[in-house]
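This part of the workshop introduces the protein records we will be handling. An example says more than a description, so a record of this kind follows:
>
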Amino acid sequence: MNQTKTITSSFILICLAITLFIVGSLLAADPLWLAGRFGVEAGKAYAEALQYKHSYKAYAKSNDTVDAPLLENKNVPVLLYHSIIPKDDGYNVTVDVFKDHVFSLKQAGYETITARQLRDFLKDGTPLPPHPVLITFDDGSKTSFYPVDPMFQALGFKGTNFIISKYSTGTEGAGSFYLSEDELRYAKSTGRWEILSHGHDAHELDTPFMGGSNHFLSQRQFLELEGRFENENDFSMRVLRDFTHSKDALAQALSADMFGYAFPFGDFGQNNSEYPENEKLILDAVARSYDIVFHQARWKHPEPFLYDNRMYMVPRIVVHTEWSGDDLLQAMANYMASGVTSIPVGETGEE
């Protein structure tokens, strides 16, 4: 009897796997090898999306609608997440909290846009939906994609993932934490994901400098062979190489235009008292590679602005782990009305 049950269970699992593969392969976009390799993943995402659609209908019936404010200036809310995880770690948002966030956004009437749409709006005045929001994720972890994608599929949402090219492209490999090149291509093929740059080496917090470890971008490196710190030209060329390296690596891997960049740790030299000129050097360098760049809203420049007639600087709202959906909506409404100063204050680490 037990053997019969085991055979029956195995048969059901095999049938389910085949069904997921077939459905997923039909849902996954070209090229064909992507559809084959990620057919099961696409099928699983579709099955989860159906569950989220059902959950959202129940949510909408049991929660009051909070109407999103109309966009009346350039303060389009841009949200910053990292990993979406099962249990709270004090740093990343949990799956349940994120679900509450996106359900709240959907019910309030927000429509997701891409960074490309935001750039075109700021640059050319290209119209946006009346209630736009840009949802971004930093670092390109697997947990910024797989738990999120079914929710986006269920709600008709899109997202932008800023990728550390050092860990997701080339020979070093993505390992178990970061999305691989194939996974990035699969994410892009769904039509729900925009992939942009988050630097190559620039995300390394523990890059060695004389006297300690500092951020790769904002600090001057000590040149051991020459026994001196970088001068302005040395510094400018180093950070420019990192901007272009990441851009070129991702563009080649994805056959896509890498027009946007997110500063690691939100750091573009704005708080460097030892080398205050680094801010201008960094912005001049990044403007040679990208049309639009993103930083954290808790820093300098609380509203989007055009830098040197070449590049748009856009702040992002760092989403706190303890925020409910209502807290998020309030933070967004405050930002849209008056910029960063009214965003609720909460403890958060560096990004």
In short: The mean pLDDT is 87. The first helix runs from residue 2 to 27.
